[in-house]
Amino acid sequence: MHIDALDSYRPGESPVHRLDPRVKLVLTALFILVAALMPDRSWIGFGLMGGLILLAELLSRVGLGLVQKRSAVALPFTLAALTVVFSTPGRALLRAYLPGGPWTVTDAGLLRFLSILLRSYLSIQAAVLLTATTPFPDLLWAMRALRVPRTLVAIGGFLYRYLFVLADEAARMMRAREARSAAPGGRGGRNVVWRARVTGAMAGSLFIRSYERSERIYAAMVARGYDGEIRTLAPPTLRPADLVAGAAVGMALLSILFVGGRG
Amino acid sequence: MLFSTVVASPPPMHIPDGFLSLGVALIGWLLAAIGVGIALWRSREALGERQVPLMGVLAAFIFAAQMLNFTVAGGTSGHLIGGALAAILLGPWAAVLTMTTVVAVQALLFQDGGLLVMGANITNMAIIAPLVAYGLYRGVRLLAGERRWGVWAGGFAAAWASVVVAAVACAIELGFSGTSPIGIALPAMAGIHVLIGIGEGLITLGALALVAAARPDLLAGERAQAPGGLRWALTGLAVALVLTLLSPLASPHPDGLERVAEDLGFIEAAQDAPYTVIPDYVFPGISNEALATIAAGIAGTLIVFGIAVGLAALYRRRRMAEA
Fold it and tell me: From the CA of B224, how many Å to the nearest CA of chain A?
């Protein structure tokens, strides 16, 4: 499997791509934080945040369609919030006589639901933009620079490095199973309990292969002088342009929070 | 429940940003930091310089193993989540570390789960799930002694419980955040994941059976009477009990939906649901609602535990009859 099949990074030349990964990570976190702090029904605030993220998306030239498509990941979860439509006290708008009901849609509930949806939609766009314009190793490096525990970042790096190898292994096993009987989507072979146990055996086999691979990797690392200490290059200093861009966007976000919070 | 029939096949477990209030998200980060901090320290003690390559590759294994799916029925498919399998094969702290990395990379690379709420997702899927699973596994093995069925019953129960407790924790967080009233979120989330947990249990059993056959040394490292078994069983139980105690508190009003119904004069119409096993998760005969919810939770946990042990005993008898 080629690394592109799973990676979310879209190579490109743009101001957003060039921005220091540390600044990008902090700004993304701040954007999501501001979205979380924005009170319900502050449509001005949500609108301004939408404008800001749209501007960044246009600047990055990764394609609006791509960002929208990837943002749909969180869509199934909106069902979990759907219940506030019925449970928030307010003026009744609609009543449905269904089992467990009557279910009453209130105006306050509908607005709360919309606010949750907008907040989630804005946040996920920021995260999509971050991963689409930053290679994952750079993201790990930025996390290390921002004082995430070294060991944790190193484990993340290994996960990323071997994910593609083991995903290949898993894909091969599934192809072998399909060739023999239990293809998902097809008749699937015998009953569901049997199919689950077969999948379990595949997972067990994958575990043993992964475990033994990790032993070989460790031996190779020791042979090259690994002593348990993870050494990383010192992070380069931030360029003035990065600082200016970071400060400007940060100020913009705080002003949006101020305006939206009052409105 | 209407809600549970509507929910589509991907289990809504990775909470996206926007669905939790800031306070709940921060508490999630606090719990995650404590859990991961202990896990980093304990696994470093146990593994030394092997920690990084072993944990990293096995985190990639969990990630890849989640790709292995099987047909359930009518176009839906199930796959492994892996928290319990990791806890049984690697020990609880290594499992916390690998699952944390998996949850973090899923959020960072694929937007599967939010960034601000990542702490809560880590707490649910990478800390609560493996700890409860491991406690249950060690507890069952303690009961079974040196007999073999302890591994299978314990493994199944651990895998089932890991999925259900993570879903319950998720529902509690949604309830505290005012996103989804606990009276609906908890039964809906628990209801779906009680079923998904069975799949998780079967896959975990299959994986354990293969490891026991091919590399028994990886399983034998954890003997039934190894020291700390009782402590782990109690730890797992304590985590599960804290969740049970939290669930009735997760809403300022006992049930927002019922309140609305009452306000609008529909409470009588809402009284008779078509069928209920444990009505509204409230135990009959106990007047205090919070107490009753807790009693119902404990009773449910015990019933499931009993079924798991009973099935294992049955399986064992059949095996002996065959022999």
Answer: 21
